[in-house]
Sequence to fold (329 residues):
Amino acid sequence: MNTPATHRVSMLEAMLLIRACEEALAARATPTSPGTCTSVGQEASAVGVVRALEPRDRILTNHRSAGHLIARGADTGRLIAEVMGRVDGYCKGRSGTLHISVAELGVILTSTIVGGELSLAPGVALAQKMGQGEPGAITAVFFGDGAACEGIFHEAVNLAVTWQLPLLFVCENNQWQAYVARRETMPADPAATAVLGGGRIAAWAAGHVLPTAVIDGNDVDAVHAAARDAVASIRADGGPRFLELVTYRQRGHFEPDDQAYVDPAELARWKPLDPIARAAQRLLDEKVIGSGELSHLRERARATVAAALKFAENSPWPDASELAHYVYA
Fold:
């Protein structure tokens, strides 16, 4: 099934908005400000997968989550207000970037605990299988290659396969586990499918008899096609699927992080594979859009973020008298 041109342009626009939002947040980060973990360079994986889901589906993700939330339709003003700790944020300024929950978008949580989202996703999918939520709904859980090194990864995969849960595992293999390169903890596996150096994590999942696919995570069209296929398969037979999206984290682990540990030559090799540049050039080459429309899309993303920043900066701080509100034993 081919993706309509209008949908492809919409995906590019979402990626541009994600990039503009995160670069604006990074520019305002200081050593004493709340840590902002950006997903610059990973926009295709977020947009490609989330746009394959439906409103009835549920999402759990990690601390590098702004891309998933914006792709899902989050209001950038409320999102930035949350990062700034203001009352108009999605969680009234209590979560920052790290523990957001947005019920109206079906986002169960974002977790700063490495693999934390993996510990809860099978439970959400089990509830769906037992009749909670809308019929045919599935759960998608996003995690990084670092989380794949945690025991909970294997526990979650094993449980999903054993109980045949409607769960889509999405590993965003961005080559970095905080400050440690993936290759230092995950040696190359000749038996694994090689797509931009990926496949090892999918091989681990396949060991649990879980259907897997390794995708170029910087190609939004390829990601979206693979996600649509996986989602359709889950809805058809109720069992889990696994996607390893091979991408690259272009900025540091958090802001500000000078990336002194990154080999400049490695970063230079990945720059031409930037997902936004690739998607834009493909649409230009296919004459789906012109250079004028592309410029308009970029400007609209910047304008949206500028308005969102103004909204967030004008939002008040939480009142100290509400410190104990929304706290449960």
Observations:
- The longest strand covers residues 167-173.
- The CA atoms of residues 41 and 250 lie 5 Å apart.
- The beta strands are 58-62, 107-111, 139-144, 167-173, 176-177, 180-181, 212-216, 241-246.
- The chain has a mean pLDDT of 93.
